[in-house]
């Protein structure tokens, strides 16, 4: 249900049954690109991409004008420019994006302490008991979107429902600058009306496999029992079974700790030459480091993933005494790991790179055991 429909029937309350949560998922609209258009009026209404414009650059974010041409985040810049010759590239300004993100989070915390950020531009909020006693998650979401617009001159979309899975689906429903409310009793029908590709966690390959099995929509998925899903999807079948029924019991976690940040590429043709491998790794470094900066993360373990033409997968990791704090160091470690594996025994079809063993922002580096013991004396 979109915002106009929610207001036209006069219902502001969610009329929730006892025990159900009130969850909001807020997602900024084309955040990085929208900040650039806000700060430079000459860019408004034009196709804009944030990221590197060089041959090895990638798109970190694309404005809605650029998306109309098929430009998407994580797309190589050369591909993006081919799709949209008039595309305007802007260099990333993460200091500005973080500042705006802090303004947005302050608005969230004005209404509830239960905020789970997913990135600089999106978060879950549990407003079952809101600070100001408003009582209606729909009204709170509308107030948050209004405050974001007034404070930042940017737009946000929101999804309102009784669990995280539904709220996140809802925030995508009426983008950009929209709101969607899924009330108790509506979740299963809403989910089952969607194409399976809309389910979070179902990627292109997963959607292709499901299509081969006759699953195109949430309704198709809901017709499969748990045993059938386990047989075809293993433990992921548990998630699919619940998702097809709109069920999600996860709470909003204010101290959510991300385990890793990474990215990978599957190639149209298998590659094995050293130069091609190094060029590909450079592209993946660009993608992953944008994500690392966006999440203000620091980590100590760099892992390279290779999937060979026979589908065998190997991972090679290097753990460091100090966290990786700059892109040059991250890239150098990744290339050192790759160099140790060359020449490859056979071509690869996929390469991935991950930074893990993450520290939370402001967390001190772990001390050696002797230093920890001295502090107790």
TrEMBL record:
InterPro entries for the chain: DNA/RNA_pol_sf, DNA_pol_Y-fam_lit_finger_sf, DNA_pol_Y-fam_little_finger, DNA_polymerase-Y, DNApol_IV, PolY_HhH_motif, Rev_trsase/Diguanyl_cyclase, UmuC
Site (Substrate discrimination): 32
Pfam families: IMS, IMS_C, IMS_HHH
CDD domains tied to this protein: PolY_Pol_IV_kappa (cd03586)
The protein's enzyme class: transferase
Region called Disordered, residue ranges: 1-20
GO cellular component: cytosol
Essential cofactor(s): Mg(2+)
Domain of life: Bacteria
Catalytic activity: DNA(n) + a 2'-deoxyribonucleoside 5'-triphosphate = DNA(n+1) + diphosphate
GO annotation, biological process: DNA repair; DNA-templated DNA replication; error-prone translesion synthesis; SOS response
Keywords: Cytoplasm, DNA damage, DNA repair, DNA replication, DNA-binding, DNA-directed DNA polymerase, Magnesium, Metal-binding, Mutator protein, Nucleotidyltransferase, Transferase
A GO MF label: damaged DNA binding
Comment on bound cofactor: Binds 2 magnesium ions per subunit.
Chain ranges of the UmuC domain: 23-203
Subunit structure: Monomer.
Job description of the protein: Poorly processive, error-prone DNA polymerase involved in untargeted mutagenesis. Copies undamaged DNA at stalled replication forks, which arise in vivo from mismatched or misaligned primer ends. These misaligned primers can be extended by PolIV. Exhibits no 3'-5' exonuclease (proofreading) activity. May be involved in translesional synthesis, in conjunction with the beta clamp from PolIII.
Family: Belongs to the DNA polymerase type-Y family.
UniProt name for this protein: DNA polymerase IV
